[in-house]
Amino acid sequence: MAVITYREALNQALREEMVRDESVFLIGEEVAEYDGAYKVSKNLLEEFGEWRVRDAPIAELGFAGLGVGAAMVGLRPIVEFMTWNFALLAIDQVINSAAKLYQMSGGQYNVPIVFRGPGGAALMLAAQHSQSPEPWLAYVPGLKVCSPATPYDAKGLLKSAVRDNDPVCFIEGELLYNVKGEVPEDEEILVPIGSADVKRQGDDVTIVTYGKMVHEALRAAETLSAEDEVEADVVDLRSVRPIDVPTVLASVRTTNRAVIVEEGWPVANIGAQLVDDIQREAFDALDAPIARVTGLDVPMPYARNLEKLVLPSAENIRAAAREVCYIS
Amino acid sequence: MPTKVVMAQLSPTMEEGKLIEWKISEGDAVAQGDIVAEIETDKANMDVEAMGAGVLRKIVVQEGATVPVGTLIGIIAEPDEDIESLLSEAEAASAVVATEEPSDAPEETTAPAETAVPDEAAAIDEAAADETAEAAEEPSAVVLPLETGLEAEGGRVRASPVARKMAAQEGIELGTIAGSGPGGRIVKADVEAAMAAPAGAARAPAAGAIGGAEPVGEPRLRDERVEASQMRKAIARRLAESIGPVPHFYLTIEVDMGRALDMRSELNARADGFKIGVNDILLKTAAEALVRHPQVNASWDEDAIQFHGRVDLGIAVAVEGGLITPVLRDADRKGLRRISLESADLIERARARKLLPEEYQGATFSVSNLGMFGIDEFTAVINPPEAAILAVGMTLEKPVIEGGEITVRRRMRVTMSCDHRVVDGAIGSAYLATLKEMLENPLAMVL
Question: What residues does CATH 3.40.50.970 cover in chain A?
Fold first, then answer.
């Protein structure tokens, strides 16, 4: 099996879907001539031409709206935001148009569009460019939200997102683009939206997370196993709307303990929602209050040392897991 | 063992209480049940009674002070007993109390103090003659024995949800085990430790072996394997040779059903439209009688008698091509209405062949009723490893002589088949006498 990067996996997904269905096109800043700011769209202009791989001006609201209109009349646009921070300028099209037109038109218009780009912190990008948009987007009925952690899931989920008849927000990660993983070469990979994946099995504590934090959680799990004799079940949500609650519950019923990890801010986030699901559906399975590990409740500082303090780490996750396991 | 005297929560809305008066001084001897102090709650002045005996070693909260519910106010112990750890706890508590303003709001009403607590404890002691001395020292709301996971605050045990659930399934009383979690919270590991501990220690009636339905209150009996005496072993061996391998014998008694049927009519005349069947009353009564005669709620197990902590009644149901006995779990801890609902559901699903295996396995006693088929009386075959089965006939109007007069009564004949290795004639007879007594005086069941 080939080992490729997350970036290459996304590139394969884009190419395969554009070959399969000529109504699929890509639009965004620098996606064509420059191969994408992060080179996700490498060689696509060459293969598919400027009608299907389209450079847009620096006008997010405009090209997001162009995408929504194209989707309404039968095309399948993939709108790339250079990062999700810039998508704030386009959010009216995402929320007020894409998410709502199906319902507001009484089912006359589907909006099969993918909004994609990196989210979260990278390195010293400061307050305006280090944000995790998943909870904002997951709040909106009519949107689906994916945030894969591995090349395999990135490819499989992006292909599913392109084929979905509703708007899908796809959050990648600048620090994920170089992550490598196995992806089968001659096989169609489709990861269903809304299905979680247990990335590591263990009986003592459930760590639920998604996106970049999956890798921190797996590091924490190795330390827990080596130092604390605690075996963690690491559940990668992969999609945060809809959330695969049954997989989370099945794990918690086995381990009796849950730690929820996410990169962004603590208030009203995905973990806050999951805590509700767990306490309601698996109350009798809990042996400890559910712990949450999140970024700190502040705008991201620019300074490298402070940035490190704000972001969740494998050490934080290990500490939370020990706490719910009553290890002092 | 030292006994804590705490500010008890004497009304649901009470959050703090004022210590009006200590009735005794430090150094005075205290007997269980003595009134040691008077406190003022948000509703009334009430007496605090000692549940433990000894000497009032320390007054922690002085007269006039107002403290939150659950605060340690005094310590009762033997004169030479070590109460150091408690004293340091008291110091920590008083540091908090000192910052609080005493409340002087006068209260006009006086209600009887919590006399129900010691009375109830005494009643339980009497009723459960074979309970251990340990059980008699169960904590009450007023005075808490130490060393358990019981929290003083309102007497609620702190335990994680899964620990609670496991303890209920295993028949472990949470108040009897120590909590290792934050604030003394009992966690899963503590319950597992209690499960691993030798039987009898913290382990009350265990249900694990039988499994099944949701718990209803605390179990009333105890799982216990008692080695058989030489005589009993001989009885088991000889009788099994004669009629084996389960040596049956039969006891029949006739029961006057008049009052039970009247009670049923009255209940069924209620406006809520809920109907209770005769069989429901029988199941309820059979279960209650088992609690009073635990020897019948038992099984022969090699050279020992296994007493069962739960009362799980098998209900023999005729189905096409045979019969099946769905199990009504914890029948002794359920009310008539619930017994009625659950047994109707079990019987219906038994007829539809939709029972799960765990729903028809593991009964501790069975009831077979052929009354509806017009059978006057019959004998049933025991379903091992149960020790007995009750065969119930039809209720008939019969002439009965009472005080020299012939009167018409509604009578029912029941026959119990007993496994002679476990149940002797006298025990079986006593069980049936209780059953008869309860059916003939159904009101007495509420006692």
Answer: 2-183
- ipTM of the shown complex: 0.73
Comparing CB atoms, the residue among B164, B165, B187 nearest residue A288 is B187
Task: Using alpha carbons, list the distances in angstroms from residue B117 to B3, B114, B138, B139, B218.
Answer: 16, 6, 11, 10, 17
B420 as an active site residue: the answer is: yes
Measure the CA–CA gap between A220 and B87, rounded to whole angstroms. 43
Mean pLDDT of A259-275: 97
**B165 touches A at CB < 8 Å:** yes
Q: Indicate if the pLDDT at residue B427 is higher than 80.
A: yes
pLDDT in tens, B337-388: 889 888 998 998 888 878 888 888 889 999 999 988 889 999 988 888 899 9
Domain A2-183 has CATH 3.40.50.300: no
Contacts of A290 in chain B (CB under 8 A): none
In the block, which residue shows the tokens 């009992």? B186
* Residue of A60, A134, A216, A262 with catalytic role: A60
Q: Which residues of A touch B165 (CB under 8 A)?
A: 284-285
- Residue of A129, A231, A281, A323 marked active site: A129
Task: Please give, rounded to a whole number of angstroms, the shortest distance from the CA of A312 to a CA of chain B.
Answer: 25
Residue A187 DSSP class: S
Is residue B146's pLDDT more than 70? Answer: no
A176-232 confidence digits (pLDDT tens)? 999 999 999 989 999 999 999 999 999 999 999 999 999 999 999 999 999 999 999
Give me the phi and psi of B172, to 5 degrees please.
-100, 130
CA distances from B133 to A302, B106, B130, B218 (A): 68, 42, 9, 18
The structure tokens listed for A226 are: 């080596």
| Domains parsed from chain B with CATH numbers | 3-97 (2.40.50.100), 224-446 (3.30.559.10)
Question: Is B162's CB within 8 Å of A326's CB?
Answer: no
Class of domain A197-324: alpha beta
User: A285 vs B160: CB contact, 8 Å cut-off?
Assistant: no
Do the chains contact at A283 and B161, CB–CB below 8 Å? yes
- CA B238 to chain CA centroid, Å, is 36
Buried b (16+ CB within 10 A) or exposed e, B223-234: bbeeebeeebee
pLDDT tens per residue across span A39-90:
999 999 999 999 999 999 999 999 999 999 999 999 999 999 999 999 999 9
Cβ contacts (< 8 Å) between A326 and chain B: which residues?
Answer: 180-182, 187, 189
Chain B, 76 to 135: residues with Cβ < 8 Å from chain A are none
What does pLDDT average to over chain B? Answer: 78
Chain B, nearest residue to A290 by Cα: B160
